[in-house]
Write a structure and sequence with these properties.
With 282 residues, the protein is α/β, with parallel strands linked by helices. It has a single domain, classed as Rossmann fold (3-Layer(aba) Sandwich), CATH 3.40.50.1820. 32% of the residues lie in helices and 19% in strands. The longest helix has 19 residues.
Length: 282
């Protein structure tokens, strides 16, 4: 385990996977996690990329998993902090540790959304976003929209108000989440345009600073990262060399992938190999 300083010197818990010198491709991959997800979810994918010549860095955002303080009630953190401060710090760390390597990034869910929140995204040479979206409920799957809305916009805020944070681990729902992150997601429900909402609140965004390659991936049965949802983030990267693609279950083939299934080892020779080939071309 390593500690990565952020731009405001908060220490994040991270893990570094260093490729063997015989297989190096002179690239370092940063994996940005989904909200409330421990970096451990990406261990097998990170190992796969390491075995294929990439140095890989995984990390937990402030307030999440191993980057969680002992007391989360009263802890200040938001998903804009994750982009502006945490991801910025990880980019600096990658440059320091591997100065002669190209930086590439995989952003899962919020992990793709926050890439536009740091001016340091100009240091990245290639991005794959998987299920990256803006948490606008009208974009969600029609079958599960009501259920997800009830959880995200009624249950989560109500419980968070009582505890001062969302106790996800105790409830068997991923990791604990800082109140500021829950509040930001809850405030997304009335706004179709994430960029306008954040900029109206004084947040500076940098989606148009990124001019290199972007591959936006959606999964056919992802109830949150639907095509409409991921297109909202994809479209914000106006000057990048970009492509959007929806993974069909019949292409794998399999009956279910959902929002988190991409990182299961069963996809090593299919979906993972697809991303490896894409990164290799950077």
């Amino acid at each position: 385990m390593i500690h990565i300083p952020t731009s405001d010197q908060y220490l994040l818990s991270g893990k570094m996977y260093e490729a063997d010198n015989t297989s190096l491709k002179n690239k370092v991959l940063i994996i940005n996690s989904a909200t409330a997800v421990d970096k451990k979810l990406y261990h097998h994918y990170a190992t796969y990329m390491m075995d294929n010549g990439y140095h890989v860095i995984t990390y937990d955002y402030r307030g999440i998993a191993s980057s969680r303080p002992k007391k989360l009630r009263g802890f200040k953190a938001s998903f804009t902090d994750w982009g502006q401060k945490d991801f910025s710090g990880v980019i600096d760390f990658a440059k320091q540790e591997f100065p002669d390597h190209k930086i590439v990034t995989l952003g899962h869910s919020i992990g793709g959304t926050i890439i536009g929140m740091t001016q340091k995204n100009t240091e990245i040479h290639g991005i794959i976003n998987i299920g990256a979206q803006t948490a606008y409920y009208k974009d969600w799957s029609k079958k599960q929209k009501t259920k997800i809305y009830f959880l995200w916009h009624i249950v989560f805020p109500m419980i968070t108000k009582i505890f001062g944070y969302f106790p996800g681990k105790a409830l068997g729902m991923l990791e604990d989440i800082p109140k500021g992150v829950v509040d930001q997601w809850h405030n997304r429900r009335k706004h179709t345009n994430l960029k306008k909402q954040l900029e109206d609140n004084g947040v500076e965004l940098f989606y148009n600073s990124y001019a290199f390659k972007l591959l936006t991936l959606g999964v056919e049965d992802d109830p949150i990262g639907t095509e409409a949802a991921i297109k909202r983030i994809h479209d914000l990267f106006e000057v990048s060399d970009k492509k959007l693609e929806i993974i069909k279950l019949s292409q794998v083939p399999i009956d279910q992938i959902g929002h988190f299934g991409f990182f299961r080892r069963r996809f090593k020779d299919t979906l993972w190999a697809k991303t490896l080939a894409w990164y290799d071309e950077i």
